[in-house]
Every structure is written in C-alpha cells, then in structure tokens.
Design brief:
Elements lengths: L11 E3 L5 H4 L6 E3 L5 H14 L4 H25 L1
Parallel strand pairs: 1-2
Helix pairs in contact: 2-3
C-alpha cells in the first residue's frame, strides 16, 4: 500500500480523471474542478487530517500547501483556456 512507509499521501485529482483502480488504493481521494471553491476542498482535507491524528501546526501547514497547490492547478487550467 502507498502509505505503509509512514508517509501521508493525499491524492487530489481533477474530476473525471481515470485510473480508478489506482485511486482505490487510497483511503480518501479529493476531487476538484476549475469551477470549485479551493477553500472548500482545503477544509475537507484539513478535516481528513484531523482524523489522521496530525497536530494543529502540521494540519495548518499542510492545508496551506494544499491551497497553494490547488491555486496553481487552477491557474494552469485557466491559462490553457
């Protein structure tokens, strides 16, 4: 399993992405689209991290990184249009 080496992997994929068999290996997969609210996805992930027993500082840092990453994904999608 991808999480056996004590590494947290948070799959964030675009809606409609294939590879369902691969994504089924993860306990939770977060979906986004160019029209989505980045803050909502970030909140979902922070809630997920609470269940993973991460401390508050780790959750906040990971949440900020996720927000930046999603923003870059959306900027990239907008640039292609």
């Amino acid at each position: 399993m991808p999480w056996e080496k004590n590494k947290l992997i948070i799959p964030i994929v675009a809606e409609g992405t294939g590879h369902a068999r691969f994504l089924n290996k993860f306990p939770k997969v977060f979906l986004f689209s160019p029209s989505c609210n980045v803050g909502e996805i970030e909140s979902q992930i922070v809630e997920y991290l609470k269940g993973q027993m991460r401390n508050k500082a780790e959750r906040q840092a990971l949440g900020a990184l996720i927000g930046i990453g999603l923003g870059l994904f959306l900027l990239s999608a907008a640039a292609k249009q």
